[in-house]
Amino acid sequence: GQQLNQSPQSMFIQEGEDVSMNCTSSSIFNTWLWYKQDPGEGPVLLIALYKAGELTSNGRLTAQFGITRKDSFLNISASIPSDVGIYFCAGPLQNRDDKIIFGKGTRLHILP
Amino acid sequence: NAGVTQTPKFRILKIGQSMTLQCAQDMNHNYMYWYRQDPGMGLKLIYYSVGAGITDKGEVPNGYNVSRSTTEDFPLRLELAAPSQTSVYFCASSPRAGGVTDTQYFGPGTRLTVL
C-alpha cells in the first residue's frame, strides 16, 4: 500500500546549522503536509503544499513539493533549540482528502 | 475554544479489559480522526469520521470501534484490550472546507498501557 518514507530517521546538529530532510513515496500525492511534534504533545501543522513544484516558507522553514509528486523536502535554516522535535510528512491516502497517512518521522536533536 | 480534548491522559488496562477513549472538539469541525503512535513510529490512522453518523476504517482498525452520534464527540472503543494496543492515541479534527486537505488539529493524546 501507500507508504511515506522519511530520511534521515534522526539528526544531531549544532545550534545555528541548517537542516534538510525529505519524504518519498512510490505513489503520487496531490498534497504534502509537514507536521512537527513536540515531546508529549500532538503534531502541529507547519506547512501544506498543494501543487507540484510549489515552494512554501513559514518563517525559517521552507518546504517543496517535488515535481514528480512522489517526494517533498523540508529545510530549516539557522536552527534554534526550540526546533527540537519530530518532523512528520503526511499526505492523503489514495488521494482521498479525508484519510491522511504519516511517515515515521525525522527526529531532530540539537547539541549544546 | 478548548480545541480538541482527550480523556483520560493516561490509562493502564489488563488484558481483556475494555475501555473508551473520549475525544471532543468545540470548533464545529466535520472531520474527526483517531490515530495511534507506537514508540519511534509515525501515526497510524485507526478510524475517521466525515460527519455525525458516518465513520470509516483507516489503516489499522482491527480491535477498535468508533461511533459519531454528535459533531462534537468521537469516542474510540477497545473491547478486548491486548498488549499490542499499548500506544499513544491521538484524536484530531479538521474543518474540511474548500475541497482541499485541511489542517488537522490534534488533541494532547492518551497514553495507554495494556499489561
Task: Give an overview in words.
In chain A, the strands form two sheets. In chain A, strands 2, 4, 5, 9, 10 and 11 form a six-stranded mixed beta sheet that branches. Chain A has a five-stranded antiparallel beta sheet with strand order 1-3-8-7-6, with no helix packed on it. Chain A has strands at residues 5-7, 10-14, 19-24, 32-37, 44-49, 55-58, 61-65, 71-76, 85-92, 100-102, 106-111. In chain A, a hairpin with a 5-residue loop joins strand 7 and strand 8 (71-76). In chain A, 35% of the residues are buried. Chain A is globular. Chain A is an all-beta fold. Chain A contains no helices and eleven strands. Chain B is mainly beta. Helices cover 0% and strands 49% of the residues of chain B. Chain B contains no helices and eleven strands. In chain B, the strands form two sheets. In chain B, strands 2, 4, 5, 6, 9, 10 and 11 form a seven-stranded mixed beta sheet that branches. In chain B, a hairpin with a 2-residue loop joins strand 5 and strand 6. Chain B is globular and about 35 Å long. The mean pLDDT of chain B is 91. The chains are: A mainly beta (112), B mainly beta (115). The A-B interface holds A 1, 4, 6, 31, 33, 40-45, 48, 50, 88, 90-93, 97-105 and B 4, 31, 33, 35, 40-45, 48, 50, 56, 58-59, 90, 92, 96, 99-104, 106-109.
Largest interface: A-B, 27 and 28 residues
N-to-C series of helices and strands of chain A: EEEEEEEEEEE
Number of strands of chain B: 11
Count helical runs of chain A: 0
> How is the biggest beta sheet of chain A arranged?
6 strands, mixed
- Report the principal-axis shape of chain A: globular
Distance between the termini of chain B: 36 Å
- How confident overall, as mean pLDDT of chain B? 91
Low-confidence stretches of chain A: none
Extended strand count of chain A: 11
Q: Summarize the main sheet of chain B.
A: 7 strands, mixed
Q: Identify the quaternary structure here.
A: heterodimer
* Helix-strand category of chain B: mainly beta
Radius of gyration of chain A: 13 Å
Sketch the topology of chain B as an H/E string, one letter per element.
EEEEEEEEEEE
Q: Could you tell me the strand content of chain A as a percent range?
A: over 45%
Average of pLDDT of chain A: 91
| Share in helix of chain B | under 10%
